[in-house]
Amino acid sequence: MTDAVKGPASYFPAIEKKYGRPVAEWKDLIRSSPLTRHMELVNWLKAEHGLGHVHANALVAHTLAE
């Protein structure tokens, strides 16, 4: 029996499918941004890269938690 993925990572398959980039690329993009605050990064992903709020939030939360 496998445990279901929970939390922000549960959105990763949908993010990759919808936006055509692997999660690793999105995370690298977030890390390379001069922005550091959670909502700044979320708003930047939405405005500059066309991500929806939930997907941007999941990527930022997961990346900043590392």
Indicate the topology.
Layout: H1 12-19, H2 23-32, H3 38-49, H4 53-65
Describe this structure in words.
This protein is mainly α. It contains 4 helices and no strands. The chain has helices at residues 12-19, 23-32, 38-49, 53-65. Helix 3 (38-49) crosses helix 4. It is globular and about 35 Å long. The mean pLDDT is 94.
Which descriptors apply to this entry?
65% helix, single chain, 66 residues, mainly alpha, 4 helices
Rg (C-alpha, Å): 12 Å
Beta-strand percentage range = under 5%
Straight-line N-to-C gap: 27 Å
Tell me, briefly, the overall form.
globular
Order of helices and strands: HHHH
Mean pLDDT across all amino acids: 94
Biggest β-sheet strands, sense, barrel: none
Number of strand elements: 0
Report a brief summary of the structure.
The chain is an all-alpha fold. It is built from 4 helices and no strands. The model has no long low-confidence stretch (mean pLDDT 94).
